[in-house]
Specification:
Elements (H helix, E strand, L loop, with lengths): L1 H22 L3 H6 L6 H12 L2 H14 L4 H29 L4 H8 L6 H29 L2
Amino acid sequence: MILFGFILYLILVLVIGILTYRVTKTQADFLIAGRRLNPWVTAFSERASGESAWLLLGLPGAVFVAGLVEIWTVIGCILGIAFAWWVIAKDLRIRTEKYGALTLPEYFTRAFGLEDNRIRVLATLIVVFFYTLYVSAQFNGAGKTLNV
């Protein structure tokens, strides 16, 4: 039964890939859906990508250890996310369109008029360093979750 579900999932992913391949013509189509998604779809996609083991394990663990005082963590997260959605994202969308940028390093390079690769190299180093920590934390969380 598990194998059947896995095969069905693989077929579904393959079908979605084939269907989206037909509408993906440019790099902008692939990276940011050609800027065609409405703000709510983009916001919920960002949240689905942003939540991880910290929400499933870290926050409940913090509540267990510290108690209801951790409600402030939730309030801070909600306010921070709302600020990012309604203040930063709107302005950033306008500016990235103005500069024709698809990524943050590309935006910073064009906005500050830098022709060399300093920002791109720095961004790459930051991403590699922090994603290594992030992915290792996710593997740790997955291991704890799946440990029966």
